[in-house]
Every structure is written in C-alpha cells, then in structure tokens.
Automatic annotation (TrEMBL):
GO terms for biological process: DNA-templated transcription initiation. It comes from Streptomyces tsukubensis (strain DSM 42081 / NBRC 108919 / NRRL 18488 / 9993). This is RNA polymerase subunit sigma. SUPFAM superfamilies: Sigma2 domain of RNA polymerase sigma factors, Sigma3 and sigma4 domains of RNA polymerase sigma factors. Belongs to the sigma-70 factor family. ECF subfamily.
C-alpha cells in the first residue's frame, strides 16, 4: 500500500466512477483501491502540502490519509458528498493534526528548556545569595567581642543551649545570656535587619 504519490491523476478512472470504486474498496477490493489511489493521491497530496509546506512530511501524511481511505471506505456515504470532498476533508484534518502535534511538541520542548534555564539560573542566584549572606555574617561576627562571637557561634552553629554554652565557655549563665543578647543586637545592626 506504500506507493509513490503520482504527480497527476492518470488512468481511466473519472470522478463519476469514484463512488463505485469506494464501494468496491469497502468490500476489500485491492485493485479498486489501486485505481482509487491513483485518482485521489494527487488531490490528497496537494491539500496536505499546502498545510504542511514540507514535502517529506506531506508525503508521509498523504500516505496515512490514503490508508485511512482504505480502512474507512465502508463509512463513506455517497448522499453525504463527493468522494473527493470526503478525501479532501480527511487530508486537511490529518495535515492540521500534524501541524498541531508538531507545534505542541515544540511548545513542550521550549517550556522544558525555559524551566531548565530558569532552574539553573535560580540555583546559581540562590547559591550566590547564600554565599554573600554567609560572608556578611562572618564579617559581622568578626565585629563582636571574643565572648559574644563564641557564644553566638556555639548557640547558632552548633545548636547548644544557653546552659551548654555557659558550661563550654566556663562562664556564668547570666553573663552568657547578656553577651548573646548584645551580640545578636550588634549582628542585627551589622546585617541591616529591621525589626
């Protein structure tokens, strides 16, 4: 059934013979289909190539249309319209479906590329922001007294409680609480955090 598409309709089959050919094709007559193919392939290909504008894709879609005509021959009703109109409608729908499918695939690829680009950009931006904030925190920590720096570092980076910080630094608990409070105020001011 994969026959080359003829450039023009040649052969003895006229348009008036097409309904009879369709009835024969509906009964599985391969010779009738061969004649139908020769009569309709140029029309089908012409419609498809107008929509797709790509010869290779048009040939593929036109072949699919001709196969549809073979498979759906029993559905053709002469009182609903001419065979050429029916074939042209199927050809146009198939071609439009191909365009939509290609556009949907291109849209999906573009959206995926945009997501990947945005994700990569967001990750880099986030890493830069974290690094800048970390450097600012380290700079601000250097501006604290030795005891404030140690107390804040132990509490926030090691997760120790006030009591554990006091024990680790061998300093009275009230002193640790005061130094941490003062250190956090200085950090807040250094970091430019508004409360």
């Amino acid at each position: 059934m994969n026959r080359p598409l003829p450039c023009s309709a040649t052969g003895p089959t006229g348009r008036s013979d097409l309904p009879a050919l369709m009835q024969q094709v509906a009964r599985g007559d391969k010779e009738a289909f061969s004649s139908l193919y020769d009569a309709l392939a140029p029309l089908v290909f012409g419609i498809v190539v107008k929509v797709l504008r790509d010869r290779a894709q048009s040939e593929e879609v036109a072949q699919e249309v001709m196969i549809d005509l073979w498979r759906q021959a029993a559905r053709y009703r002469p009182d609903a319209g001419a065979v050429t109109t029916w074939a042209a409608t199927i050809a146009h729908r198939r071609a439009v479906d191909r365009v939509r499918s290609a556009q949907a695939a291109a849209d999906r690829e573009q959206a995926q590329a945009a997501r990947e680009h945005r994700t990569a950009f967001d990750e880099v931006a986030e890493q830069v922001e974290i690094r800048l904030e970390s450097e600012q925190v380290r700079r601000c920590l250097r501006g604290l007294t030795e005891l404030q720096n140690q107390a804040v570092t132990l509490a926030y980076y090691r997760g120790l409680t006030y009591r554990e910080v006091a024990e680790t630094l061998r300093t009275p608990l009230p002193t640790i609480k005061t130094r941490m409070r003062d250190g956090l105020i200085r950090l807040r001011d250094c970091m430019g955090v508004n409360t």
